[in-house]
Structure formats: structure tokens, C-alpha cells
Amino acid sequence: MQFRYRARDKSGQLQRGSVDASDERNAADVLMRRGLVPLSINPAGGQGFSLLNSSFGESLKSAFQQKVSLDELIIFCRQMYSLTHAGIPMLRAIEGLADTTQNKRLRTTLKDVHDQLERGRNLSTAMSQHRGVFPRLVIAIVHVGENTGQLEESFQQLSVYLEKEQDTRKRIKAATRYPSFVLIALVVAIFVLNIFVIPTFASMFSRFNVELPWATRALLGSSEFFVGYWHVLLLAMVGGFFGVRYYVGTDNGRLKWDSLKLKIPIIGSILMRSMLGRFARSFSVMIGAGVPLTQALSLVAEAVDNAWMEKRIIEMRRGIERGENLSRVARQSELFTPLILQMISVGEETGRVDVLLLEVAEYYERETDYDLKTLTARIEPVMIAVVAVMVLILALGIFTPMWDMMSAYQGR
Description:
Elements: E1 2-8, E2 14-20, H1 24-33, E3 37-43, H2 55-64, H3 70-85, H4 90-100, H5 104-118, H6 123-127, H7 136-148, H8 151-206, H9 214-249, H10 251-261, H11 267-288, H12 293-303, H13 307-321, H14 326-333, H15 338-350, H16 353-411
Antiparallel strand pairs: 1-2, 1-3
Helix pairs in contact: 3-4, 3-8, 4-5, 7-8, 8-9, 8-11, 8-16, 9-10, 9-16, 11-12, 11-16, 12-13, 13-14, 14-15, 15-16
């Protein structure tokens, strides 16, 4: 984006002009490196409003565009590391990747990045124009790599980080796949029983003038409700789904939902450890790349992908800005165990915070790996208990009156 600025130089003279940057903070950094003190920074006008250029239009276009998967980002970072390590010029490297990639959106993005590089922009600025393809964390590390002359090491760090992130996501999906299928099967079974099976027994029971037990009356009542109001139930489920989705999309709703997820029995503790491992690894990568502590915390807050934890990390950043050290704000956040707090404190004292944070990430990842391996074994008893309760209710509601009727018939 282009920003117009008002700033004062070292002699106090007022300067006006425009600068290309990814956001206002980046524009301020550019001006300060030029020796200017910014007074105001505003997006350049004159482009007019267009629905397609608005945030809604960008979201709409992104929804219909081909996605760039995490696998493709990992391959991109690996290839960029190999090409830059081999000494291939950046323009040739980007052009070669644009010609060989199979993803149309990534190919178009890389061609645009190539064009911007030819116009004199640096790589991180060009990548920042495509936030839907390159996450903010990736752009920040590339930016630091350019400024420190360690661009190839930055791509190597990114490939390792993204591989770990991909592995964690796959393990969580694999562990929750079985419980999800069981819950879906239970919901389908409840609908089938209430709409098709129980009405058949209800017509049979109505021909016998016998007193029905409470379980049978409950089943018949629920079946009548399902048969008579199935369309209302369907509308309520669809409306509830979209209503909850809309509420979760708001800032307050997302904060409450992300906090609630961490309190779910069995699964919540696993999600917590997984996100803490993600925080520690991404924070280690940022510090190792030379990102300032406050900026690293801001970027990592977005990387954890949890509004509740993001709020805690932002509070840590504010503590750092007030002059407190990292170990103190980490203790105040109440996110970490005493063992982790000791490792952070030792890292501060020895100047090896990034190394010890990497140890913290590996610790949490080992804990998450162990929990995921035992997750199925811990959920199975709960699922079996739910199925057993359903079978018991059906047995009491269906077979008990049938046995009573058979006993009455034999007594005659």
C-alpha cells in the first residue's frame, strides 16, 4: 500500500511525501530508518471506493479463489531456501518457482511478486500484498532475513516451523476423527429411530389397552415430536448453526468460544498444550531471526489462532512495553507451568531465550503427542457409555411393554 506522511527531519524541518509499506507500522519503520520522525501517516487517497477493492470484496474473491495449502507453503519455503543457498538471484528464483508450481493462485501471486521485485520493491513488501497466500508470520521473518542478510536461514526456519505446524494439525485431526464419526452416527440413529422405527411400535402398542412404562411414554412422546415438528427441528438446527457461526465470527463471540474450547474435558488440555507449543516455537523463530521482542509477541499472538490466548499474549507485550522482563510477564499471564517459567528465566539470564523456547516447544509437542496417542483410549469409554444408555432406554421403552403383553397373553 502507499501511505502519505508528514514528518520532521533531524533539523526539525517539515517533510511531506509518500512511502510504500505493508501497513502504517511498517511505514513508520521505513521513515525512522530514513532519519525522519513521523507526525502523521495515512493511506494514499484518490483511488475511490470500489466494492471489489473493499475488505468485503477481498473476502469474497478469496472465497472463490483456489486455496494455497500448508503443504504448498512448505514446499515454497524449502525451494526458496535451496535456491537462495545456491546463490541464484532472487528474480530468477521467483520466476522459476512461478513457472513450476501447480497451484494457479500461487503461480499468479509469484508472478506479481516477480513484477514488484523488478520495480524495485523488496521481497517482504511484495509478499505483504498477498496476505491471503502468505501469513503475517512468514512475511515478518522474510523481512527480518532481508534486513540482516540471512534470507536463506529465514526460509529454512520457516520450512521447519511450518512442517511442525502441519504435523500437529494432522495428529489432532486424526485423533478427533473417530469421536466425530461416532457422534454423527448417534445423531443420525436418533433421527431414524424417532421418525421411522418408534412410530411402528407406537401403532402396535395402541391396539393393546395396557399401561405403558415411563421409558416407553418418553420414547413415544419424543417420536411424536420428531414426526410432527421435524421441519421445525431442521430449521432450528440450520439456523442455530449459522447463528453460532455468526456469533463466533464477532470479536466477543470468538473470545468466548476460544476460551470455552480450552475447558472441554479431555480435549481442552490437548488444545492448550498444542497452542503453547505453537507459541513457543514461533516465538523462538522470531527471536532467533532478530525480531524485536514486542513485535515478535504481536506476530506470535496471531500465530496461535486463539483469541483468548492472543489476549493474554498481548497483555505480555504491554508488560514488556512498560519495562518488565519476559519471565515476569510470562508468570503474570498464568499460561505456563513452573518448569517452563524457570526455563524462560534461565534463557533471559544466559541470553539464550530462543534456544530454551525451542526446548519449551519440543516439551509441549511431546506432551501433545502422548495425549493424542492416548486420546482414543480415553474417549472410547465415554462413547461406549453413551451408546449403552441409548440401548438401555430403547430396551426399556420397546421390549418391556412387549414382554408385559406376552405375559398377559400367556396368562389368558
